[in-house]
Amino acid sequence: MKKERMKVLFLIPCDQDAARGNVTTAKRLQQELWRRGYEVELADVNQLDLASIGDARAQLVIGLHAVHCGPAARTIAKAWGVPYIVLVSGTDLNGKPQKPATEAVQHANAVVALGNAPATRARDVYPECRNHLHVIPQAVSLLPYRPGVNLPADAPEIPNDAPMVLIPAGVREVKDPLRAITALLPMRKEQPEMQIWFVGPELEKATGDALRAACEEHDWVHWLDARPREDLLPLFRRASVVVSTSRSEGGPPNGLLEAVLVGRPVLASSIPAHREFPGAESCFRDDIELRKRFRAILSEPERAMMKSRKMEEVVRQTHSPAAESLSWDRLMRPLIET
């Protein structure tokens, strides 16, 4: 007799077709947990009518974002009489959360952080979670490979040997996109063909307007907007370095993990999550250090490549989807079967 799959409802803070890290995380877990006997339904929390939830359609509810999804996960789980988990994913670790979020975290059956650094921050922001907080390192899947697919037709023209800085992230203030332009502007004299390519959706209009203005001012800065994950591999392969200038992260950014698996050097702002991955040696504390580390990558490409390969091994071991789904399975199964 075929064993029935355990059903999980995964609440995400945006449309499931959005080009955002939360969606990448949710879809990866949906796929990997299927292999472990779960059926995971993704739902945009903004599209739910909590006043008419209906009969239970899952044995467990997971809210991917304490602020945006935690309260809804609590409401649904209570109505259905099932347990729920809150996954803290980044911006829900900033500032002082309001009461609905803190209560959702407090009453959750478990709270999950994507690394040790965000777990430390979670204990500070949500002290109620200390006794039921679990660390499950963020995993990464290989970017899809499609034979014969090169750079998109609308990609900027760039000489084959010109340095290119790729910044894959949603455009919003916390990601600090303009910092890369300010920091790398002095290098244009020594690298006149250098370009910066931003790839990601506009998540905040004010930051998007500022980036558009910067692109108009600097003809070496380009914003390619959001791209399907299936189209990203050629962009990563073309990059001389993949950079995160973020001021806050809830774990290793998908873009940095994906870059390492492609064999690209990475650099990141010196914040706790980045110092955990990709590590302090790949972090910059100020603009001068960013330029220094980028110059080292350009002047010693073989050394940079060797470093990327060593980092790739770490990612394959510590951030594998199989290890991630196993940890989730060990967390969820007792809650469902109790």
What is the CATH topology classification name of the largest domain? Rossmann fold
Strand content: 15-25%
Low-confidence stretches: none
Largest sheet: 6 strands, parallel
The CATH architecture of the largest domain comes to 3-Layer(aba) Sandwich
- N/C terminus separation: 22 Å
Question: How many structurally independent domains?
Answer: 2
Structural class: alpha/beta
Series of H and E elements? EHEEHEHEHEEHEHEHEHEHEHHH
CATH superfamily of the largest domain: Glycogen Phosphorylase B
The percent range for helix content is: 25-40%
The general outline is: elongated
Gyration radius, rounded: 21 Å
CATH class of the largest domain: Alpha Beta
Keywords for this entry:
12 helices, elongated, Rossmann fold, six-stranded parallel beta sheet, single chain, 40% helix, 2 domains, 338 residues, 12 strands, alpha/beta
Kindly describe this structure:
This protein has 2 domains: 6-139 and 320-337, Rossmann fold; 164-318, Glycogen Phosphorylase B (Rossmann fold). It has a 6-stranded parallel sheet with strand order 2-1-3-4-5-6, with helices on both faces. Helices cover 40% and strands 16% of the residues. The model has no long low-confidence stretch (mean pLDDT 93). The chain has helices at 21-34, 70-80, 99-107, 116-125, 178-184, 205-217, 233-238, 254-262, 272-279, 287-299, 301-318, 321-337; strands at 6-12, 38-44, 60-64, 84-87, 110-113, 133-135, 164-168, 195-199, 221-223, 241-244, 266-269, 283-284. It is built from 12 helices and 12 strands. It is an alpha/beta fold and 338 residues long.
